[in-house]
Amino acid sequence: MRVQIIVVGPFEVNCYLYWDAQSRDTVIIDPGGDEDSILQFIAVTELKPLAILLTHGHGDHIAAVGALKEKFRVPLCVGDGDKEMLTRPSEFVSAFYGRPVSSPPADKIVTDGQVLSFGSISLCVLSTPGHSPGGVCYYDERTGTLFCGDTLFHGSIGRTDLPGGSLDRLLSSIATKILTLPDDCVCYPGHGPHTTVGAERISNPFLTGDYVV
Fold first, then answer.
1. How far apart are CA 117 and CA 140, in angstroms?
2. pTM greater than the 0.90 cutoff
3. Bridge partner residues of 17 (DSSP)
4. What is the per-residue pLDDT across 27-79, written as a single tens digit (0 to 9) for each?
5. Rounded distance between C-alpha atoms, residue 79 and residue 150, angstroms
6. Is 142 exposed, middle or buried (0-12, 13-18, 19+ CB in 10 A)?
């Protein structure tokens, strides 16, 4: 399996292309803008997009969904608590860009523990609310790969001061869904560099109790 990071939009979101090097089967994760860059990489590498997966519905993660869905005609997946964000931009979403940012409605509402299969790609959904009500992560147990959106960052966690956010729920999500994964699991967040479960377990101040408000 291969991972390509394309940093998109004014808030430097990590859009991920995750694909099988043999079959070229591909999922697009969090296309938050700059659809031309995403489309160019897909064309040059001859990938075969089979789905668009959203870790959550905030505007900075969905801005290119419409263009990519129109191009590839693939299903769009999001967690239940965030489905309304896609078609009904909140004031928070509009504040990102100075204009409403929306997406086509989701084709598939994903739930905790659900296994998604797209061609040769198989990912398990982990429900991780806290940054948003319906935040999810996508885990490939075979490769030890986790796409964790804005739930967990290198040395930090997602903000919880936005509508529907909850620090208690976020910390519980991380403790029960992410820190239970193997230490060598590679975590690909919505912004910034990748990390591992083990590294965050021992050094992330929000998880070790060293963070002071």
1. 11
2. yes
3. 4, 28
4. 999 999 999 999 999 999 999 999 999 999 998 999 999 999 999 999 999 99
5. 14
6. exposed
